[in-house]
Design a protein that fits this description.
With 106 residues, this protein is mostly helical. The protein is built from 2 helices and 2 strands; from the N terminus they run ααββ. The chain has a two-stranded antiparallel ribbon.
């Protein structure tokens, strides 16, 4: 996922550099940076389109899942099985409620 955000940050940084410019003629460095960022954006376009398709397809299911799970801290990290299934196991409780011994203060 990091490979998607780096070009977007670079694009914002480049746009900020160009907006901060006071005269109308861009320097060679600014033109080079602009060309670099435009090329990077062209290279990233297929990946961004693929991500959009993933979000369109999986968005409703993920939204439903987020609504059903109240506390993510009680689950372990997802595990991907060799067949491609993804399992999210609940963390074992330290002691089940039935085995908790009462504490007596003296």
């Amino acid at each position: 996922m990091r490979h998607v955000f780096a070009p977007l940050i670079a694009l914002c940084f480049g746009a900020g550099m160009l907006a901060a410019q006071e005269d109308d003629a861009p320097s060679m460095m600014e033109r080079g940076a602009q060309q670099f960022l435009e090329g990077l954006l062209l290279e990233m376009e297929p990946a961004l389109e693929g991500m959009r398709g993933f979000i369109d397809e999986m968005g409703p299911a993920l939204t439903k899942l987020m609504g059903e799970i109240e506390d993510w801290s009680v689950y372990e990290a997802p595990e991907i099985l060799p067949n491609g299934d993804i399992i999210i196991r609940r963390k074992p409780d330290e002691l089940p409620d039935a085995e908790v011994s009462p504490q007596i203060e003296l």
